[in-house]
TrEMBL record:
It comes from Paenibacillus stellifer. It comes from the Bacteria. PANTHER family: HTH-TYPE TRANSCRIPTIONAL REGULATOR GALS (PTHR30146:SF109), LACI-RELATED TRANSCRIPTIONAL REPRESSOR (PTHR30146). Coiled coil: none annotated. The lineage of its organism: Bacteria, Bacillati, Bacillota, Bacilli, Bacillales. This is HTH lacI-type domain-containing protein. GO terms for molecular function: DNA-binding transcription factor activity; transcription cis-regulatory region binding.
Length: 303
């Protein structure tokens, strides 16, 4: 590639790995578990392409900005019930980051290219990625060269840390085959839907997308049990349903729901604590041991 500056993307293409992997290898990061074979592939590709590191950029990158990105996948249409869940999670992360001395840069993916450029200009120390579809995740992985922690979006790449709710456990415990419907938001990640579809047929799963009618869906479900993800969506279902309900909520207060509604708590505080533990480890603020790549938040039933 004579006459052209070799980039990390060039090396990634030559070595057939992600740009993030190249960044970790060339910066001699030991926080991410990358095999010796993969490291050798990256170094060989860099040598073959005559890669010359930008020492000025590296020096800047080694300076902490004390800025952490929180990147949320906001689509063109966002129903308030889903935004309420996002706000709960962002607030839990933000309060913990402030206690550690970090400021938060909140970015959405409505304009992915622009938001990534903003993140790069701000020189983020790390970023949390909330509810991202696989295609967008892959795009972000190849354009950010900082520690990334994924929340509620399953990438399945052993290079990265992910924090997920154990929705398998929720639906396995709550769904009564043939007599239960499920109501969920239209998340960017299909993780929740895939978990629900293991226990409930497609025709009994309602996705709260723009233009969909929850009233029409519930009209033929009188007397059936409902499992709803989200407190606001649970409140809407309470007003329309004619059978028992179990609602997944973000804390034990559940002030919006009726006393007789069964509450299943997915503690947003616990989820945030898990994510912050990973962050501290990746930024070498906590040397208590490398956390698992995949961490699950366990649901707790309130009865």
């Amino acid at each position: 590639m004579k006459g052209k500056k070799v980039t990390l993307q060039d090396i990634a293409k030559e070595a057939r790995v992600s740009s993030a992997t190249v960044s970790y290898v060339l910066n001699y990061s030991e926080k991410e578990k990358i095999s010796h074979k993969t490291r050798l592939k990256v170094f060989e590709a860099a040598r073959k392409l005559n890669y010359v590191p930008d020492m000025t950029a590296k020096a800047l990158a080694n300076k902490k900005s004390y800025l952490i990105g929180v990147i949320v996948n906001l689509g063109e249409f966002n129903l308030r019930s889903k935004l309420y869940q996002y706000y709960e999670q962002i607030d839990a992360l933000q309060s913990r980051l402030h206690r550690l001395g970090y400021d938060v840069v909140l970015l959405s993916t409505q304009n992915l290219t622009e938001d990534i450029q903003i993140g790069q200009r701000r020189s983020l120390d790390a970023a949390f990625i909330i509810d991202m579809d696989t295609v967008t995740l892959a795009s972000m992985v190849n354009r950010f060269y900082i520690p990334l922690i994924f929340i509620d979006g399953y990438l399945g790449d052993p290079l990265f840390h992910e924090v997920l709710v154990d929705y398998d456990a929720v639906f396995a415990a709550e769904v009564e085959p043939g007599n239960t419907y499920v109501v969920i938001e239209q998340y960017s990640s299909d993780y929740v839907y895939k978990c629900a579809s293991k226990y409930c047929p497609e025709e009994l799963i309602f996705v709260n997308r723009k233009g969909a009618s929850l009233r029409d869906f519930l009209a033929s479900k009188h007397g059936m049990k409902g499992v709803v993800v989200g407190e606001v969506l649970g409140l809407q279902t309470e007003n329309l349903a004619g059978g028992p309900l179990a609602v997944v909520v973000g804390d034990g207060e559940c002030s919006l729901l009726r006393p007789e509604t069964r509450k299943i708590v997915i503690d947003q505080a616990q989820k945030a604590d898990m994510a912050i533990h990973v962050l501290r480890n990746l930024l070498s603020l906590d040397n208590s041991g490398d956390p698992p790549k995949l961490m699950y938040v366990t649901p707790q039933a309130l009865g």
